[in-house]
Amino acid sequence: MAVRLDYVLKETGSNLVRNLTLTLASLLTVAIALAFVAVSFLIGTGINQSFLGLRSDVQMFVYMNPGATADQIDSVSKNLQSNPQVESVKFLDKEKTYAEFKRLFADQPDFVESINPEELPQSFRVKPTSTDADVVSAVGTEFENMTGVYRVEYAEEYARQVQKSLSTLNSWVRLFGVALIFVSVLLIFNTIRTAVFARRREIEVMRLVGASNWFIRLPFMTEGMVQGLLGALAAAGLTWGFDALWKRNFVNQVSFELLNQIKWTGGDLWKAVIMILVVGAVTGAVGSGIAVGRYLRV
């Protein structure tokens, strides 16, 4: 028995309208489940971006001896600029160092007055290309042994902590995202299975009159896909609403120093929306096909 497109569309539409209460319950379940998936994806992306910002703050300071010659300073500068592990270099002479010193200790004027600018060491502020703690440590050790260098300071422990925290966070976010998708799939499947169970008599009658399995299955799969897509569209609306509320209430708000660092781009938002649309459609179609298959067995 051939399957006509107009028959599939007609059956899908009539079934959705005929079982309106169950259809609305399915859409609500799908929308809530997929909205949670999208929100978790956005928050995970925002947390990851905030940690990338922390990683970019890892810097190294190369302090020169007070009596370092111009040739020694120039040698260190050239080596830093030619080093492939160094992204950028900023030199602070005595004048700039003193200005920075005054800024840092602006609330202690007596202490600032007691310091002679000539006593402050000139330094290089270095930003490594990598935030890997071992790479930063190796670069620091290399320049510590150069002539004219007093000492090299870098937040090695900070770099290691950021590296460890980012790795742990990414693992938890991925695990949580997979768990949410799994739960969403189960919710969608169970909702569709309930809808198919309510129409098991209709399926039995169609089998008795000689309808093929695909003739019976296809309208249900199309209906499941439509329900999944409609639920995903509702979830997309909820996700956009969450995005607007989050950016208005938390991003760039001084009163929420921790939360205002958790942000994502418009591209990330579209990725979340596309992801839930695909999950909704595929889960709806496959879930319906599996659920109705139970009543097609001889």
TrEMBL record:
Keyword Cell cycle part of the UniProt annotation: yes
FtsX extracellular domain location: 58-152
Domain ABC3 transporter permease C-terminal: 175-296
Membrane disposition: Multi-pass membrane protein
GO CC annotations on file: plasma membrane
Keywords: Cell cycle, Cell division, Cell membrane, Membrane, Transmembrane, Transmembrane helix
Matches recorded under Pfam families: FtsX, FtsX_ECD
Keyword Membrane found: yes
Membrane spanning stretches: 20-43, 172-192, 224-242, 272-296
Record's protein name: Cell division protein FtsX
Species this chain originates from: freshwater metagenome
